[in-house]
Predict the structure.
Amino acid sequence: MFTTIKNRGFILAALLAVAAGFSSCKKSDNGGGVDPEPGPKGEYAVLFTVGESDYLLSANSLTEGSISPKGSGVDVTNIFTWGENIIQKGKYFYHLDPNEGKFGKYVFENNKLSTIGEIPFSSFSYPYLGWHIWIDADQVMFGSRGGNNYAIVNTSTMKVVKTGEFDTKSIPAGQSRKIYSVIPRGNKLLIGFGLYDDVKKVNIEKSYLASVDFPSLENFKVTSDDTRSAPIGALRNGYFSQLTDKGNTFILTHPIALGANMPNMPTGFFRIKEGTDVIDPGYFFNVSALTNKDNQLGVCDLGNGKVILINAHDAATNVKEWNDWWYAAMWQYLVVDVNTQQIVKTLNFPPLLNSRSAVVHDGKAYIAVNDPKADAIYLWEYDPIADTLKKGLKVEGGSDNTPVIFKLN
Amino acid sequence: MRYRKFILLFFLFAFSVPVLAQQNAGISGQIRDNDELITGASVSIKGTQTGTLSDKDGGFQLNNLKAGDYTLQVSFLGYISETKQISLKPGQQLVLNFKLKKDAKQLNDVAISAKTAVRKVKETGFAVTSVELKNYANTTADLNQVLNRSAGVKVREQGGLGSDFNFSINGLSGSHIKFFIDGIPLESFGSGMTLNNIPVNLAERVDIYKGVVPAFLGSDALGGAVNIITKRNSGKSIDASYSYGSFNTHRAALTGSFTDKKTGIHTNITSYYNFSDNNYTMYNNPKANALLRVVENGQFVTKDKLDRFHDGYESFMGQIESGVSNKKWADVFVAGITYTSNYKERQTGATQEKVIGQMFTRGHNIIPSIRYRKENLLVTGLSASVFANFSANKTVVTDTSGNVYNWDGTVRERRTGSELSGDKPMINHITGHYALAQVNFGYVLGENHQINLSHNFNRSYRESYNEIDPYNNTYDRSNSLNKNITGLSYQQQLFNQRLTTNFFGKRFGLDGTTYSKDNIPTSQSKQYFGYGIATNYKIVSNLGIKASYEHAYRLPELVELYGNREDVLGNPNLKPESSNNYNLGIYYDHKIGSGKISAEATGFYRDANDYIITTPSTSGSAGSYSQYYNTDGIKVSGLEGEVRYEHNNLFSLLVNMSYQNAVNRQKYSAGTVRENITYLSRVPNQPWLYGNADFSIGKNDLVGKDTRVQFNWFTQFINDYSVTWSKLGDKDTKDYIPKQFIQNATLTYSTHGGRYNISLEGRNLTNVIAYDNFKLQKPGRSFFIKLRYAFSQSN
């Protein structure tokens, strides 16, 4: 009779969150004193999802060996109750539990997940995350999916610093604002958003960029808009959608059905030039135009302007029902260059199931490859410099969901 | 609201009381043999036209007798007739009981012995448990709680009175099980009547068909069916009860029937009323990972216990059926009207970690109906029955508070939106129509062959709109779906009725129309065929075996097929679910002195595929939809057994145990050739070992003539079970529903041969923190008192 929230995104959870994909890319960018060699036990974690159950497994290496959830791993089903609400940073996992209304901090070490602290958090009417950013080493900012709100939590003290809604006066009557990207820029935040027509009940097919003072979050100004693609950013928390290269910020749009579902729009990158706060009218990297109108999802930033995307090849033919977005063998890994606006390479795999999970370490990408004909899901190492692909860690045990990889240091 | 229903119930009660006002000289009593009550025995006064037949309880009543001396004769096929000389004084009400002895010669001559309806059901080949409800009539239980004591049945409740529940038979549950009331699908009465609000007094017995469902129940039941047989007394009767107990729980029930002598019009009245605050105590229980936390000064603080505060429930049902019987053109022709209403507050989200403080649902249904039956229609042996009804349902779900609540009832955070989904506030009006027409023909060829043909047509329609969405002021036109189900069965009895076999086939037809946003209709039509066999072979008179099989279907439902135009996408490619269901059972009974032991054991296997499940939904945010789709489903094998010992009319002991192993039959991960890691693993979060023990002791005339004192102790056991896949993950990190023993007791005192009854009932006496679902605690210890008046008289 009632929609149960427990009946949650078990498939979406896999499609999740490569919080890893996002934050580990950042981590790699920051350097951060990382040991280049596979380190001690449990340097990586793999979230294995089967049905409505989730298991967090420890992995020593992504280049060899195998792991299995049989009799091992932490059963996190009732801890990470909503996969897209996981925020990971190093060995720390944060999770906003939409049911109880709590924000928790957990540490994954020696194959054990321990609770560091849980605080009440119920500021969001719609407690499903759409985005998060790290403001500094301790403070994380996040907001609801398809919402106009935000919260800042200090993860060191586990205190809510601030919650609220971005300026509402600038929203036209009968419309609502949906934020897809938040980009820190010194003492400002750039906000990528779209508008939703509450009367016609449709997304307006347009991308907007605004700037707001930080940390006051006042002085909200819409700086530009663009009709070439939308939405500007990802719909769901953890989806890779932005990178900075040579001072310029690039934002991947998500018109794909798994994103904001704007079937008439191409997928591509917008650019915000260094020192500006507008969508660059002279740049749009139209990836769909190079892939016969296919749409893509973001995977990871390889560095040097190169990005891995996953391409839904000929979805019009391959997707007959909603589940096919996950289980139709149609996906291809693409390496694109946002500077040359070219597809550098299509990784040499057969058509894959939706297997969008990766971490980047030492300039190499480790991607989950769900080949329907293989004996298991393997992590493959892609080295963009040597241009090599190597089969690595085997994740034993078939599941309808592709495991999600996390780098723990 | 609450008092209005009471007044209505009182009115119905007052309406039926005149039946009792006729005080004349008369004779009443009960007829039985050594073992059981005899139904249908002839009772007559020699030399007069006065006579009657004993009712289902073996009872009889002869009224309007003048003072004088009479010879009373009681006779029944297979028994030696008895006569008694009596002398009646003016106005005297004489009570006279008879104990008939079996006539060995007659029994040899005709292989018919007195059978109760329950035994008749048992002796078909179907794997059926028939629960006679008169044993529970003095308890405050609803049907769910009674059926939950049966082998192979598990009802998982989310809370107290009126809470949502999941009813499973041999491991299949939810929409795989269909419910009927007198053979009519319960869903045709709207959402107001469910097994968690129908009191035991209203029904005579309940038949639980496991896996294999007879064709006359014209529905698409994949895993079994429950048929509630209501009280339909042809004479005058009344059964009225009221109970009060813990959590401010009030329950009243009434059934009555009478015939107007002038017109011959017979009237049945049925009504019930339930009310409860359900404010039972919630406990902090780290063992079950169910913490009771509130927020104080911005931090979580754990409390030992707190009472629920927004879980009120109220439901009402009133039904009047009136018509004629024993006419040339109809044995029975009645028209009726049923009204139900319910109000339900919601206290928790998917688990008790989400506390809801304002959301509620209110609904009401009105259902006119007609019923017709005729035996020997046109030719001898041909019977026909027709039933039709139309239900108009209106449900309003109100969720307009965005507040976040603590378990102590305080508001943790005030915000806008709705409580449950967090989305926009809603006052959602859901209107549904359900029309049903059912025709049933039976033809008896001699004593041993029966043919039955039934056809069910039903049409469902649904539409909804949100009253407070300013941009949505038009009805969201939804869809309609028609189902046609035809059942044909042939039952034969061979070898001197030792072998009974029922062959059946079912045709399922489905057609419907869906409307696009531009109101452009699209239609489709499909049909499927199911079939089965059920057989019973009596090896000797007290030992037999039963075997049954069905290739069963469940058709997709309206929303599954067409979506709801809100957050569920239609999937017109959806196939019906199907299952191959097998049962093999053995039964035995044996007399030991004045006691009798009976035992039954059944093994079962279900191979269900094309299971319909849903992709997850995230409550209608842009780009988020759920859609129903077919999966490989599950295989369930298991064993259940029940042993009962009855010692005369003094005490009885019943013990049953059920084991089921439901395993995932999805061999390959979706879209791949890889074996699924959970292939053939036990499906998590389902009880797999459970049982019941029920002990009753009672004595007649212990504290006075025509009295009975009865004591019942009932223990329920559920073994622990893992909430997630048991073989995956480190055991120390897993959550389990704990092992539970729940103790209950009832003490009843009856007087005037069962006419007046008072019961005291205690449930969950040891105050176990009980769960049927993870993080959804059920009520603890509770007490109830029930008063009941029951009277029946054959015409």
In short: The helical segments of chain B are 2-16, 104-109, 117-122, 143-147, 558-562. Residues 71 and 85 of chain B are 5 Å apart (CA to CA). Chain B touches chain A through 72 residues (CB under 8 Å).
